[in-house]
Structure formats: structure tokens, C-alpha cells
Amino acid sequence: MAERWVKLMNQTDFDFVVVGGGPSGATAAHDLVRQGWRVLLLDRQGRTKPCGGAIPPRLIQDFDIPDHLLVAKVRCARMISPAANKVDIPIDNGFVGMVDRDEFDEYLRERAAQSGAVRCQAIFDKIEHDESGQLWVHYTPVTPKEHAASEHARPIKVSTRIVVGADGARSEVARQAIPNAHKTKYVFAYHEIIEAPVGQPGYDAARCDVYYQGEVSPDFYGWVFPHGKTMSVGMGSADKGFSLRSATARLRAIAGLADAPTLRREGAPIPLKPLPQWDNGRDVIVAGDAAGVVAPSSGEGIYYAMDCARRVAQAAHEALKTGNSACLKNGRKSFMKQHGRVFWILGVMQYFWYKNDRRREKFVKICEDRDVQRLTFESYMNKELARKDPMAHVRIFCKDMAHLLGLART
Fold this sequence. Notes:
Elements: H1 2-10, E1 13-19, H2 23-34, E2 39-43, E3 54-55, H3 57-62, E4 72-74, E5 76-80, E6 86-90, E7 96-98, H4 101-115, E8 118-129, E9 135-141, E10 156-165, H5 172-177, E11 186-195, E12 207-211, E13 222-227, E14 230-237, H6 244-254, E15 262-271, E16 284-286, H7 302-322, H8 329-353, H9 357-366, H10 370-382, H11 390-404
Parallel strand pairs: 1-2, 1-10, 2-8, 5-12, 10-16
Antiparallel strand pairs: 3-7, 4-7, 5-6, 8-9, 9-10, 11-14, 11-15, 12-13, 13-14
Helix pairs in contact: 2-4, 2-7, 7-8
């Protein structure tokens, strides 16, 4: 660690400065340093993001995630309707991995550092260009224990060629450099980490429970996710007048978890729509939550953050290699080409089906259908729209229309 600090203090010029050390920032730093670039990774740390922690097999495969980081392997998803009807969806021939974000994120940051990125625990302050057009990044180192700048902390500035902003929702990098970044809409997420109720009737360490109930969330959903020795219990909502803590207390009571010891509480805004612009056309680009790449309807963010970071890192690499800053736009273009259709479908689904409890009840009913279950999980696990068995899509369409028109029983 001491050697890294010496290296940092002696080095004031980098090809890239990556701001934010979550899954997106750590992935971008790792990919860029493996391309041969000099990379500084800035991250404040000390605050774990509220997150269900689910990662699909595609992520585990694409990003070489070791098995020891998986604190649980989920093999069933249970959906609970407003009327407390339950639909169990088995995950055939596989599992969804669950990670604890504090350990998972730290592993990714350390992997980037081991690959050659210079890692610094710091608060990002600002970006500026001097009279010659040189890009500078100002930051203030923080103390490892307090995660805040001490009274005697000395601001530092380093020159760089490109800044990658991966500093989460309400990104300060995006606010300073990306036009209209402030117009993004958010869901506010909150969860409580509790001790797993091992031995309690109904407890299943390999099942995720998702609550589609207006009293838990008026426009999103609540979750109870296993994490080995602990559980994540939380919910999200874009309704600023809705009490997230009270709703989570109701969820814990509904799930029979009111008396489980609470280990910590966390909350944060989560964007649910990609920004229309990810770069400033010159030398700044954003990724992950800063770019708004959290899936509507599901709220899934880890895979999309890391995939986004990989595409952004490749675009930034091309921009420096060719000297053409227009290459930065390829990051968003590549991501939206791969995932834009899925995001649009999920957005429409959230807008319609999460509207009220009557529609939520129908939505859970639709999920009883084996065609829906199979195609949904094929798409989720592989991160591609399932195109096999076209007749299954036809059957699903017909059943959806029956529910929409009130012709199907709930």
C-alpha cells in the first residue's frame, strides 16, 4: 500500500482518471489498464450501495467472477401479488448468484489495482481545462477510517487525457460535464440487511421473493433476497412522499421478518433511464449509474453497469488511440444497440403493470405461465431476448391481450 501512495504522489499525469470505484468504475479501470494505459482510480468508499446483489451467469462468465464471492445461489424466484397469491418460478439448469456489494466491489477495485491501476481513496472535486486546453482533475484524499477529508487534507490535481465518470446516480462528473444530465428520473431504493432467519418456517436460502404490492411500493416492488448469513429486505419508489422506511417495516412484517436483528440500513437514488448523451464530445464520458443504465421494471444494475463500463472503456481506448474524440459516442451506441430494446420493453412493462394493485394482480397471474417463465429467465440469464420457439411468443401475446381486455380470470 505504501508503494502505491509513493507512486501516486510522484505521478501527476495519467491517460485516464476513473471517478468511482463501484462495479462500473472498477471494470473500466481494469479494462483500460489492460489496454496499456496509465489509469488513476478515485473512489471515496465507505458507503455500501443498497442493492439486492443479484448477478446472472452471463456476468459471472464475462467478467471472470470467482465462486467465493457468491454468498448464495438462487434457484427459485417467488412473486407475491397484492392478494398474497404466490407464483414460484424455478430457475432451470442454473442459478442466479448473490453477492454482498461491500466485498464484491472491493474485489473489483483490488483487481484493477493488481492489474496496474493507481488506486486512491478520495473525494472528486472538479474538472477544469487550463488555457492550453489541458484537462485537470481536482480531488481531495480522504482518511480510510472516516471516509471524509480531514482538516489538513490537501487538494491535489492531476492532468489526464480522458475522464471516465462512474460516480453513481446524481454523478458529479456528469453534472459538471454532460449536458442535461440532471434531467434523469430516479427510483429511490432503501433496504435493510438483517440476520438470516435460519430454521424459521418458510425460510429458503435459495429463493428470492419479490412483492408486487401497493402498500410495499406504489410504483415499483419490494424484495427479500438471501445473502447467506444475512438477507436484504427493501423496496424502491419514485414517489417522494412515500416513506421507504415505513414501507420496508411493513414488508418485514408481511414476510415474517419483523423481529430479525437489523445489521445496517442503506438508501440511494437509482436511475431508470439511460442518459441521451454520455460524453461531452471531447474528453469526458460516463458509465454505469452515472449513465443511467439500470434496467426499468427489474431495477437490475450490476450487470448493465459492468457491461456499460466495458463498452465505454473500449470507446475511450479508441478515442485516444486514434485521436478522434468522436469515438467516445461509440460507448452509448454499442450499449443501446445491445440492450436498448430490452430497456424499452421493461420500461413499458413498468409503466403499465405497476400502475395499481389490480394490474399487479394480473401481472403476477400472467407469470404463472410456463412460456412466460421460460422465456423471461432465458433472457435474464443470457442477457439477450429469447428468440427460440416463436409460437411461445405468440401464446404469450394472446394471453397478455386476454388479461389487458379483462377476458382472463385472475
